[in-house]
Amino acid sequence: MLRVLDVNYNRAKEALRVLEDIFRFIWENKPATKKTRDIRHKLTDIFKDKAILKKMLKERNAQKDIGRRPDKLEMPRKDIDSLRYANFQRAKESLRVLEEILKLIDKKSACKMKYLRYNCYSLEQYAEEKRPVLSDN
To answer: In whole angstroms, how far apart are CA 108 and each of 17, 27, 99, 103?
Structure first.
């Protein structure tokens, strides 16, 4: 379970960082940037216990991960919208996995994770409504 927590914790944080950077540097949308940062920081707070992070890191086995295929992209990205879409999917899926695993070991944290997942759903809807029309410049 520690490996599942580790990979999904990292996956969610990475996806949220990509979204945050899109909203901050490309869209220049302060509310979306703040909402994304808040979710990412609250996720970090749930895993603030350094002991669990050390255990998760110890169980990591990236080199022998049977799902690792660095030569093949999961989904092609053709533009910012497809990048945004892919990272929202990654974040939501990871938050759901974290919520489910935490139900087995820490129900309070599982409830917090559910809250973050629903915040992510709302952020995705907000982002779609506020999506700017971007030029290639």
So the answer is: 25, 35, 10, 8
Q: Which ranges constitute the DSSP H helices of 28-132?
A: 30-46, 50-59, 80-105, 107-130
Residue numbers of the domain that contains 46: 2-62+76-130
Its pTM stands at 0.89
Residue 135 lies in a domain: no
pLDDT tens, residue by residue, 49-105: 878 889 888 888 777 777 777 666 666 788 999 999 999 999 999 999 999 999 999
Side chain identity, residue 75: M
Specify the number of domains making up the chain: 1
- Rg of the chain, C-alpha, whole Å: 16
Calculate the CA 5 to chain-centre distance.
13
pLDDT in tens, 86-96: 999 999 999 99
Q: Extract the tokens encoding 65.
A: 């991960």
DSSP code of residue 9: H
